[in-house]
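Homework help board

Subject: predicted structure for assignment chain

Our instructor gave us this sequence and asked us to write out the predicted structure in token form, then describe one feature. I got the tokens but I'm not sure how to describe them. Can anyone check?
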Amino acid sequence: MFTPLLIAAAFGYLLGSLPFGYLVARAKGVNIFEVGSKNPGATNVRRVLGNGPGNIVLALDVAKGAAAVFAPWGWRLAHGPHSHQFGSEEYGYFAIVGLIGAILGHSFSCFTKFRGGKGVATGAGGFIVLFPLGALMALAVWGATAAVTRYISLASMLAAVTLPIAAYALHRSPFLIGASVAVAAFVVVRHRANVARLLAGTENRIGQKKSPRPAA
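My token output:
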């Protein structure tokens, strides 16, 4: 079982490493690592380039997470369609390992010198498939927090923390609970600079004027 898990992790990492934020911004003549928050995530792309490019990056990053969860099922299905059904406990192990690989790939991409985003959209894409009710609850928390505070970073962290709480409250498997705790902790740690700005009162809000673009 170790080898298939390793394959799921490696495939998830490579899938997550696809630097869509960097590529979309580069197509517009912008190096996203040099503008705004210097983060290739959808939030920074939207702030610098507008809603269109930002939404494209968001959709692609979400798709990476969803694909990382689906891919192990497809591979296992091809090798044993009656014993590795979608939603089974064994499938869950491969799916979660693939998703964690994708989040790490997104955050530490081998294609961009191990720089990357914070894993929120990619993680959301995976949990939409893996734990849809929990993802819906997290999305509700995200929306409410963003609407009230206008801080994307705070909304993202609270949404991430909602996942393990929901998994525990809804009596999901210990493996899923543990994985959601790990993902939530990872997301919060990746937002440590945002936490410092939130405490200092200098964090960017939704609708705040974007940084000017440098020459390409």
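Reply (TA_rk): Your tokens look well-formed. For the description, you could write something like this. DSSP finds ten helices and no strands in the chain. That's the kind of observation they're looking for.
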